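Blinded run. Sample ID left blank on purpose so nobody reads anything into the name before looking at the predicted structure. Input follows.
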Amino acid sequence: MAASAHHFDHLPVAVAVVDDDGLLLEVNRALASLRGQMADELQGQQVGVLMSRASALLYHSYIFPLLKMSDQVDEVSIQLRDTEGRRIDALMSARREVVPDGRGVVRCVFMRLKERGRLEYQLLTAKRAADEAPGLLFQLRRGPREAPRFTYVTDAIRRLFHVAPSRALEDADVVWRQIHPDDAQRVQHTLDASALDLSPWRCECRAVVDQQAMWLELHATPHQEPDGSVVWNGYIADITERKDMELGLREKASAERANQAKSEFMAHMSHELRTPLNGILGFAQLLQMQDAGNLRADQRNKLGYIEAAGHSLLRLINEVLEISRIEAGHMSVQMAELPLDEVIESSLLLAEPLAAKRRVSLSWVGERGLTVQADRHRLGQVLLNLLSNAIKYGPEQGRVDVQVEQFAGDVIELRVQDQGPGLSLAQQAQLFQPFNRLGAEHSQVEGVGLGLVITQGLVELMGGQLRVRSEPGEGACFVVSLQRASAPAPGLGGGGTQVADLVPAEALPGVTPEQARQRVLYVEDNPINALLMSTLFEGSRQFELLVLDTGGKALAALRNGPWPDALLFDMHLTDMDGVTLLHAVRQLPGWAMQPVVAVSADAMPEEIRRALGAGFDDYWTKPLDVTRVEPALRRLLSAQVRSDGTMSV
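Blinded prediction complete.
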């Protein structure tokens, strides 16, 4: 028999014909080439010469006996080897036949696994990526007269619908049944429309999985099969979080529009109401002043009623406007480190006339000398309102106590205790509702029920909390909780407009008046960076440093003098950026050419170019080399030459 039959040589796979004794009767060119030999060199050799030892043993002990029993084996993994002993992974399929002369022959086909292995790895990688994707990848098929069925789903179906992939492949209804009933018809309609014109299938719908509602987004691309079936390849994603965010944004935008409309309406109404009130109050006052002698006593009393009613209406307008501003977020507070004693003293002084009228004694007990973070005007307004309420709603000849106490965690409580009728739990639950006076509208006490609402809003604007402690018959105690102010850092303004404390040059040992230090203004809102620079300049014989924390304070200081010799600006201040501040400074008389340095942690070249192009004389990047700060300042101040670029001091 020929060593290489021509009818095998054209095949792209390796082929061998082996007799029952294991001798190679025929080898095609592909197999010989795989071995690195000529086909006739293999003829007559044992089949084992083609294989590794383990595969040769497998052939003789398993494959050949199986062929004798069943005549065929398919895709058995074996290892071939070439003449250098290198192993080649392959799949072997074989069939045994008995030829006319009675001998048995085995026809073997070998397929290299190199390409198949690569493809299997790629398929495995793709499957892993599909299974780990956040959404569900699927293939859906609908025949001409068939219901839609899944032909492929990733493992994400477990997370999304709590269904095993095999179950969804068996019955697609386990998924469709979980679509919200109100959305099911729309989903079906979009699927039908996509099948009709082969347009992309896109829809959003709700699903209810284990009694939990969620939003789904579906995208799929269809194509038509030769038999008329339509197949969609696509994905389903959980977009519940996005929908919640969109809803929140819509609600926020709607609330902002409503607040804006409310603010505009209130501002308009305020104008419209104040105009006639001006006439009512003005003329009432004129009549009482100019015609008092021509009026009877009862007429003067009636004019007094008109004036009092006008003032009550004006207070109502002001309070409603104030509530509107608080709710709309248009009211600002100027927080500062505030001595609490000053606020209490001034509030008690203002409340004294009302207390004297009702013969109520005012007392101040508890700690003194405490400092809080608050707005001076607003805190005074809060305390005066609480004192007024305590005086009005308490008994005549009673007592109102102002108590101050500091607690752990830097919390300071400011309490106003009255001797009034007290409040039940039901009344306390309604205490901060607008226009709800808890039955006091039937008493002789004036008011409209807005004071406490405003007070609560002001306290919360200052980062505090307003609470009430009360029991019927035992009076009420209103508690304002505020944060204690920390002590100012050395050399820094403590939350206000203070400048760093500096020792005059004349007071330094060995420094004469002729050697007076040059002044440097550093504008920096970061306390740590400011403290660093302040510490750096401590003891300097040439420079004294002033530190401010906003651009507005810097401009005010430059306008009022004494003027510094050089400026250092942080590029990102709370009230303006460094470039804006620089432009404002350059407009000041005498500052067109004075040295101004940008100090910033932005070290990107474009930021440096932008700053130098805007007119800064130098650009110092953080972290600073503190040993080079003073030399850099001396160079700037001793010469009129400006830097051409950044100086990373």
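Unblinding after everyone has recorded impressions. Confidence is low (pLDDT under 50) at residues 1-5, 487-514, 640-649.
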